[in-house]
Write the structure tokens for this entry.
Amino acid sequence: MNQILYVVTFSLLGFSLLKSKTKTQLALKKAWKSFEAMLPQILTIILVIGIIVAALSPSQIAAIMGNESGMLGVLIASLIGAITLMPGFVAFPLAATLLNNGAGLPQIAAFISSLMMVGFVTLPLEIQHFGKKAALLRNGLAFVFSFVVAFIMGMVL
Amino acid sequence: MKKVSLLKRYRSVLIMLFGYSILFFISSSLFEKAVDGSMRSLIELLIVVPPIFVLIGLLDVWVEREKMIKLMGPNSKGTGMFIAFLLGSVAAGPLYAAFPVAITLLKKGSSFRNVLVMLGAWSTTKIPMLMFEFSSMGTAFTITRFIINLFGILAIALISERVLSEQTMLSISEKYAEN
């Protein structure tokens, strides 16, 4: 997957370079500037999340989100999903492990959904970009939506 | 522009690193797990995220505002939404990398609703993510969730557009509009 991203990026960059050197330089300068502007916050977030996730063991989480945990389990699953941040290649294997450890399916669906759509730790960053109202609204709606996902997944599967 | 010192900007990172060194002495097993977990996110940050920013830079420099307004502007209707959905779905990388993409789209004249659709797709129907989901959770889980998400993304975009007053959306768009 990453290879595709790199091939696309380098091809477009090559194209751009062929057409205009100054514009390409400008593009790269803008790229670096916006990347570096985010870097301190992102690094901090990553380090904070590292400790939070380390402190939670899969069997512990699975126990909280168990089959019998019901609505409360869904709520807790959504909350855990909202405050954590992890790449997909970590999240899905973890979700599968949790299921195998006894977590309930609706709870896992809620966890995944809010993990992907709600970003509590990146909220300050989102507010910087879109303002308080829009950022809170998107995250709030996404949080509520994770219950909908849990409910439907529980019924369908 | 006033330059804020590097040390000051990275202060919180340094504090966290200090926290990690304390953790090392308190519990080396917890420390190892924390390092392991953050290394994975770090790899994502250093490998997946930089090309996205290069693409943002290229988009910013090459795509004309008129073109973007036509493709994703307020009058782009279903086509604009479809493009937004596709754009978010083919994306790679964490949601925080989508914020600067969103800003660049707004700057170029995309409607706020389409930006919300892009953010929704980016957060949850990304194709690379679906691959991981397929292999870990199985087909039924993945497809069911995908279908629910299609409606969810649309609902969130439409509700946000309705709830946020015209003024709020304008102020966000105008904050970034070129010229």
Notes: Residues 1-47 of chain B form one domain. Chain B touches chain A through 76 residues (CB under 8 Å).
